[in-house]
Design brief:
By secondary structure, the protein is an alpha/beta fold. It contains 8 helices and 7 strands; from the N terminus they run H-E-H-E-H-E-H-E-E-H-H-E-H-E-H. Helix 1 packs parallel to helix 4. The structure holds magnesium ion (MG) and zinc ion.
């Protein structure tokens, strides 16, 4: 009896991701997949990070959105190469899109590549893009219940930024709930309380980032 096996789409996707990682490794680039819901502050974080890395470590950004080049425009002019990837109806970046993005960059010149994923708390976590690390943002207005509700996103995170902590005082917010939920699903990733407005947590983020730096 002949058994037909349909190879998983994920398998093909993972093969492209592995190829991306090989290219990044060959160039000595550390890539960070930045994920969160829409509006958590991914682009804002990167807009602060690019100048802070400065001449010390060059970086580039692949920024994914369904439509518009708004994020690329926000990040342009800060000293990093920025490539906007429009996914059309796609609700996450695919490794194939990232591969095309890599074609647009001079990888040998980079220390870091940030991949700003499409704002979405669900499927981006399921797709390996060839990144080395995952940075996940959760902003306080989204609520203190999201870690438990969207565990897959937080499970695979290498660092978690609790963003917009400056708003905690006007929200009915229980930060301990975040910590308790994370204690159950991810004790590996540091949790950084961050505010782009007050600047709190930014040094901690930069320290984490520098710790991931390639030795080249
Ligand atoms: Mg954005
Ligand atoms: Zn998706």
């Amino acid at each position: 009896m002949k058994i037909n096996v349909i190879k998983s789409v994920m398998e093909a996707s993972d093969a492209v991701a592995a190829e991306n990682r090989k290219r990044l490794d060959a160039a000595g680039v550390v890539s960070i997949n930045v994920m969160s819901a829409p509006g958590s502050g991914k682009t804002t974080l990167l807009a602060k990070t690019i100048p802070a890395l400065g001449a010390e470590m060059s970086c580039a950004v692949l920024v994914g959105d369904l439509q518009t080049t708004r994020d690329a425009e926000r990040l342009g002019g800060l000293g990093a190469a920025v490539t906007q990837i429009n996914t059309g109806k796609g609700c996450h970046l695919s490794p194939t899109e990232v591969a095309r993005g890599l074609d647009s960059l001079q990888l040998d010149e980079l220390a870091f590549l940030f991949i700003e994923n499409v704002g979405n708390m669900v499927c981006p976590a399921a797709f390996d893009l060839g990144e080395h690390r995952r940075a996940v943002l959760l902003s306080t207005p989204e609520g203190d219940d999201k870690v438990a509700k969207y565990p897959t996103l937080f499970q695979s995170a290498d660092v978690i930024l609790l963003a917009k902590v400056d708003l905690i005082e006007v929200l009915d917010y229980d930060g301990q709930r975040i910590r308790d939920d994370l204690a159950r699903i991810n004790t590996r990733a540091p949790l950084i309380e961050f505010s782009a407005v007050s600047g709190v947590g930014f040094d901690q983020w930069m320290d984490w980032l520098r710790d991931q730096r390639p030795t080249k």
